[in-house]
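Hi R.,

As promised on Friday, here is the backbone we talked about, encoded as C-alpha cells. Could you run it through your design pipeline when you get a chance and send me back a sequence?
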C-alpha cells in the first residue's frame, strides 16, 4: 500500500546502484572541500573564506584610514552574502588574519582582544573591531577595474571575486595551512623583500633554476622568529619538490648572573607553538625528573617572550642543557612543507617555489592587461565626450539656441553636429557655468593627455616586455614599502647549524656508562641484564615464551630493532627495563604496526654498514647511521610489496655476498654489485623459480666461505673451490657444496 502511494505521488521509482551513488556524492564532497575550503589559490594565496572576508570588508569601505567596525557586522555580512557556513569558523579565520604571531604580514588590523601567543582565544566578535591593513589593500588593488572575474554568490543575488588582483605575493609571504579530502597543504611564510628580489630576477631571467631562487629566498621567515637549523641542501630539495620539512628552534642566550651563576633566556619560540602549552610541558618534564640538568623554569614574559631556564648546578654546560630541552620539548619543531595549491584556481598540485612565483607573476601580468583594457575603454568614452564638448565650444550660440527653442533638442543636436547619443547626453547634463573659456582650455589639455595615455596603453598591450617592466616597477615599489629596513619587513628568522653529535654528548652526560645484555623473547618482550651475560640458559620467561635475540651493549648506546614490514626503530639502551622481571613488551617502546613482527635487533655502531634483504631477495647496503630514527614511529627503510617482508639484516663486512634460497641454490657475487641506499626497495640479489630467500652473509673471499652445521662443526670452502658458485647479482645460483646444512642456513 505504501509502495503504491509512493509510486502514485512521485511517479516511477528509479533504481540506483548504491556504490555508484556513494562514489558520485563523495567525489562531489571531496571536490567541494578541496576547491571551496581547504586549498589556497596559487595566485592570491587565499582560501574562499579569507577572500570573502577581505572582499566584504572592502565593500564596507574598511580601508586602513577608515574607522574600525564591529567584527560581528563583518562576520554577519560575510555569512549572509558570501559564505553560508558557521559564524565561529568565519570569525576564527578573521582573527587569524589579524594575529601578528600567526600571519607574517597581517591582512586585518584588529582592535580589542584577538588572542595571544599563549594560546588564549580572542574575545567574542561583539567586542572586537577590525579594518583592512595596507597589505590587504595591495591584494585589492584594481578589483573595481575589471582586473579579475566575478561569479554569483551561493544565492545568485550578488557577485563575488573568483580571485583577488594580488599586487603582493601573499601565498608565499603569509603561507597557508589546510586539510582537504585525501590531501593537505602546509606552506611556510617568507620574507616579502626576498620574494620580491626573486620575482624580479625571474622576470629578467625566465629560465632561472630552483638553485638560483635559493640565493634570494634562503628559507622561511616565521612571524615568531626562531632559528632554522635545517641544512641548506635539505631546504633546496624542499623548495624544488614542494615537499619536505624545516627544522626550527627557539632563540636563546646565556645570561650571566655573576659569581659563576647563569640562566638560559628564551626570547623566541617556534612558529605555531602556544607558549602556555610549552610551559606546561616543560613543567611536567621537570616534575617527572626527565630533565635532570634543569633546576627551574619560569615565565617573565610581558609583550615580548622571556622564558628563564635555570640549570640544576653551576657546572652544567648550557649547550648540553638546551640540547636536552630541544630533544624533549617543542622548543624545537619540524615545520612540514607541502606546497599543495590550486594552480590557476582549478587544479590541485604540489608546486615548487619557482612555480609558485611564476603563478603569481603570470597572474599579475593578466591583471595588468585587464586593467589596461578597462582603462582604455574609459579613455575612449572620455575622449568621445570631450570631442563633443569641443564641438559645443565652437558652436556655443547655436547649441544654446537649439536647447532653448527646439522641442526635441537632443535629436536636433545629433542631426546638426553629427554627435553621438553619449555626447549629446553629456552636453545636455552640463551646467552653463561650466562652459567657460578656461574650461575649454582644460578640456583640450585633458584630450591631449588622454590621447598620450591611450597611445602608451596601446604600446603596453602590444609589447610583452613593456608589460614586464611595469610589473617590475610595481614589485620594486612594494619592496621599498616593506623592505628589510622597515619594522615589518626585517627578517625575523635566522639560520644556524645544529651542534654536531649533540645527541651522543647529551646521552653520555645524563647516563652512566655500564655494560648490559639486551634480551628479546620470541613474543616480543625486552629487558636489559646488568653486565655481559654470556650464558642465557638459566633465564626465565613467561609461559611458553622463549629467547629470540640477546647481545652485549652499554647503557649509553642505542639499539636498532628491525620489524618485518621494513621499519627500523631506535631505542635508548638506558630506557630498556631492567632484568629482574620478565621485562616489558617492546611494542610499548615503539609503535610497531599491527601485523608486523620483530625480526631482529642489534646495537648501533656508528659507520658500520649492513646488508638489508627482503624475503624475495631484493635488498641493498645501508649504513647504520641511516637507520636511526628520533620518534616512536620508527623509520621506513626497506620498501616491500604485499608478498614480501624484511628477512635479514647482517653486517656488510667483506667483499663478497653469499645468498642461499629455499630452493637450495647458492649464489656468490661481489658486494660491489649491491647498491648502497638509505631507503628503498633495493635491487634483485638472487632469482628464484620457487620459494624465497633463506639466508645471506657477507664475507672476505680470500678467507673463504664458512658455515656451521647442526653439530656445531665449522666448514670452510676456499676461494679457489668457490669458483663454480661465483656469478653476478640476480642469477639463480647452484646447489651448495657438500656438507651445507639441510636447513639452508649458514649457521646450522
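Update: got your reply. Pasting your designed sequence below so it's all in one thread:
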Amino acid at each position: 500500500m505504501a509502495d503504491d502511494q509512493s509510486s502514485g505521488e512521485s511517479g516511477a521509482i528509479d533504481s540506483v546502484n548504491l556504490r555508484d551513488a556513494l562514489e558520485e556524492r563523495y567525489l562531489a564532497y571531496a571536490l567541494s572541500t578541496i576547491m571551496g575550503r581547504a586549498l589556497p589559490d596559487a595566485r592570491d594565496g587565499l582560501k574562499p573564506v579569507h577572500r570573502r572576508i577581505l572582499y566584504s570588508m572592502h565593500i564596507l569601505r574598511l580601508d586602513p584610514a577608515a574607522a574600525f567596525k564591529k567584527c560581528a557586522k563583518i562576520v554577519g555580512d560575510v555569512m549572509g552574502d558570501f559564505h553560508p557556513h558557521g559564524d565561529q569558523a568565519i570569525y576564527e579565520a578573521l582573527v587569524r588574519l589579524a594575529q601578528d604571531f600567526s600571519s607574517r604580514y597581517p591582512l586585518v588590523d584588529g582592535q580589542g582582544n584577538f588572542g595571544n601567543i599563549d594560546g588564549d582565544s580572542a574575545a567574542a566578535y561583539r567586542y572586537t573591531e577590525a579594518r583592512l591593513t595596507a597589505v590587504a589593500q595591495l591584494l585589492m588593488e584594481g578589483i573595481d577595474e575589471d582586473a579579475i572575474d566575478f561569479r554569483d554568490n551561493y544565492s545568485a543575488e550578488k557577485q563575488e571575486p573568483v580571485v583577488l588582483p594580488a599586487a603582493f605575493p601573499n601565498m608565499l609571504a603569509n603561507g597557508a595551512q589546510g586539510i582537504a579530502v585525501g590531501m593537505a597543504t602546509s606552506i611556510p611564510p617568507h620574507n616579502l623583500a626576498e620574494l620580491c628580489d626573486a620575482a624580479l630576477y625571474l622576470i629578467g631571467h625566465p629560465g632561472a633554476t630552483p638553485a638560483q631562487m635559493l640565493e634570494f629566498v634562503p628559507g622561511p621567515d616565521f612571524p615568531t622568529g626562531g632559528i632554522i637549523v635545517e641544512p641548506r641542501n635539505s631546504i633546496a630539495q624542499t623548495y624544488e619538490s614542494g615537499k619536505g620539512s624545516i627544522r626550527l628552534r627557539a632563540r636563546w642566550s646565556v645570561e650571566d648572573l655573576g659569581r659563576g651563576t647563569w640562566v638560559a633566556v628564551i626570547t623566541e619560540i617556534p612558529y605555531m607553538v602556544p607558549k602556555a602549552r610549552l610551559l606546561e610541558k616543560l613543567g611536567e618534564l621537570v616534575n617527572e625528573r626527565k630533565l635532570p640538568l634543569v633546576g627551574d623554569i619560569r615565565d617573565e614574559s610581558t609583550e615580548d617572550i622571556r622564558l628563564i631556564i635555570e640549570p640544576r648546578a653551576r657546572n652544567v654546560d648550557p649547550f648540553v642543557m638546551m640540547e636536552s630541552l630541544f630533544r624533549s620539548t617543542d622548543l624545537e619543531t619540524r615545520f612540514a612543507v607541502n606546497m599543495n595549491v590550486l594552480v590557476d584556481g582549478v587544479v590541485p598540485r604540489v608546486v615548487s617555489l619557482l612555480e609558485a612565483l611564476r603563478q603569481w607573476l603570470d597572474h599579475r601580468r593578466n591583471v595588468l592587461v585587464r586593467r589596461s583594457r578597462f582603462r582604455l575603454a574609459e579613455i575612449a568614452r572620455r575622449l568621445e565626450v570631450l570631442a563633443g564638448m569641443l564641438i559645443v565650444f565652437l558652436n556655443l550660440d547655436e547649441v544654446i539656441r537649439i536647447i532653448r527653442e527646439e522641442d526635441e533638442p537632443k535629436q536636433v543636436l545629433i542631426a546638426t553636429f553629427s554627435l553621438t547619443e553619449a555626447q549629446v547626453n553629456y552636453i545636455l547634463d552640463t551646467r552653463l557655468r561650466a562652459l567657460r573659456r578656461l574650461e575649454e582650455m582644460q578640456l583640450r589639455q585633458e584630450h591631449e593627455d588622454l590621447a598620450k595615455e591611450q597611445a602608451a596603453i596601446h604600446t603596453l598591450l602590444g609589447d610583452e616586455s613593456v608589460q614586464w617592466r611595469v610589473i617590475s616597477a610595481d614589485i620594486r615599489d612594494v619592496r621599498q614599502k616593506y623592505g628589510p629596513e622597515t619594522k615589518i619587513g626585517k627578517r625575523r628568522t635566522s639560520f644556524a647549524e645544529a651542534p654536531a653529535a649533540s645527541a651522543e654528548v647529551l646521552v653520555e652526560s645524563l647516563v652512566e656508562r655500564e655494560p648490559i645484555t639486551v634480551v628479546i623473547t620470541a613474543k616480543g618482550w625486552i629487558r636489559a641484564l646488568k653486565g655481559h651475560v654470556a650464558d642465557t640458559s638459566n633465564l626465565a620467561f613467561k609461559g611458553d615464551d622463549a629467547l629470540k635475540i640477546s647481545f652485549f651493549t652499554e647503557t649509553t648506546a642505542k639499539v636498532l630493532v628491525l620489524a618485518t614490514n621494513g621499519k627500523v626503530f631506535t631505542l635508548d639502551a638506558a630506557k630498556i627495563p631492567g632484568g629482574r622481571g620478565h621485562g616489558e613488551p617492546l611494542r610499548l617502546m615503539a609503535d610497531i604496526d599491527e601485523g608486523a613482527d620483530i625480526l631482529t635487533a642489534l646495537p648501533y655502531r656508528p659507520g658500520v654498514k649492513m646488508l638489508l634483504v627482503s624475503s624475495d631477495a631484493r635488498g641493498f647496503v645501508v649504513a647504520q647511521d641511516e637507520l636511526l630514527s628520533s620518534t616512536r614511529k620508527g623509520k621506513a627503510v626497506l620498501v616491500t610489496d604485499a608478498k614480501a617482508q624484511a628477512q635479514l639484516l647482517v653486517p656488510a663486512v667483506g667483499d663478497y655476498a653469499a645468498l642461499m634460497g629455499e630452493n637450495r641454490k647458492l649464489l656468490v657475487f661481489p658486494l660491489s654489485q649491491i647498491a648502497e641506499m638509505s631507503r628503498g626497495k633495493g635491487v634483485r640479489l638472487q632469482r628464484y623459480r620457487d620459494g624465497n630467500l633463506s639466508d645471506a652473509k657477507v664475507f672476505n673471499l680470500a678467507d673463504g666461505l664458512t658455515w656451521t652445521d647442526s653439530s656445531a662443526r665449522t666448514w670452510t670452502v676456499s676461494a679457489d673451490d668457490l669458483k663454480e658458485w661465483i656469478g653476478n647479482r640476480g642469477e639463480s645460483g647452484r646447489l651448495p657444496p657438500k656438507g651445507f646444512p639441510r636447513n639452508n642456513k649458514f649457521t646450522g
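One thing I noticed while checking it: The first helix runs from residue 2 to 10.

Thanks again,
M.
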